[in-house]
Amino acid sequence: MHKIERLLQTLAPKGVEFRKLGEVCEIIRGKRVTKKEILDKGKYPVVSGGIGFMGYLNEYNREENTITIAQYGTAGFVNWQNQKFWANDVCFSVIPKETLINRYLYYVLTNMQNYLYSISNRSAIPYSISSNNIMQITIPIPPLEIQQEIVKILDAFTELNTELKARKKQYEYYQNMLLDFNDINQNHKDAKEKLAQKPYPKRLKTLLQTLAPKGVEFKTLEEVFEIKNGYTPSKNNPEFWKNGTIPWFRMEDIRENGRILKDSIQHITPKALKGKKLFPKNSIIISTTATIGEHALLIVDSLANQRFTFLSKKRIVILL
């Protein structure tokens, strides 16, 4: 049994209390500042109706660890301010009373984000939400010890998610840097000089300077791959489908199993080939209709439907 379940049985044996937000919180509107007063640089950010900061001031009117809800613009947007800030007049601050842990309330409200958007006035320009509508929201109020445990768990996941986002950014940076050979195209006169300036890892730069001292060769896909289209055998002929063993790929395979595929959801029989050859393993499929550009590497001899174009290597190339 999870710790929260045990705590609920002990501390809330009759169930969790639900109350309106206005009964357990203060909702305070910010104070207006003009564009002339706002600084490009300052000690404290100005939180307004948008998702980011409006600018900066050298004074603040709210403490750190405050929940904010945008009144206009991105009306209903819930955010957590981890530093002292200035709440502008189109920003609500949500201040919980003793029965609520601030961070717990933040997670409850972000979990209700779509509902907050739905109760805002989407016909107004800009969009707006009233404090009265916010105060009418009903939220669960478990005992404080349970709130603390929920915060502990969700904070850990938030930290992990932040780390994953940072790693993804780092990966994208290196992916772009390592695969961008445009300025060392061997057709460019200054390719050799550009290569010397590139911030490649030492081993990669040494390999490039040794194996491609004049720059990297560029070719069209047509020069490197055989390009053919997929097709769909007739659905009216059961001999093409019943007890099929040959992988036949569709977009659903990519959606469900990712971009490296070793088997398909549906299969066809040898009779469905009608003398045509299978596309060899290590072919790439690229969608040319609907979700254009979606792609996958196939590590099995196979076929795909007419949505896809196959790229099969003419000679040895490295496919990752």
TrEMBL record:
InterPro entries: Restrct_endonuc_typeI_TRD, Restrct_endonuc_typeI_TRD_sf, Type-I_RE_S_subunit. Its EC number is 3.1.21.3. It is an enzyme of class 3 (hydrolase). Keywords: DNA-binding, Hydrolase, Restriction system. GO terms for molecular function: DNA binding; type I site-specific deoxyribonuclease activity. The keyword DNA-binding applies. It comes from the Bacteria. This is Type I restriction enzyme, S subunit. It comes from Helicobacter pylori Hp A-9.
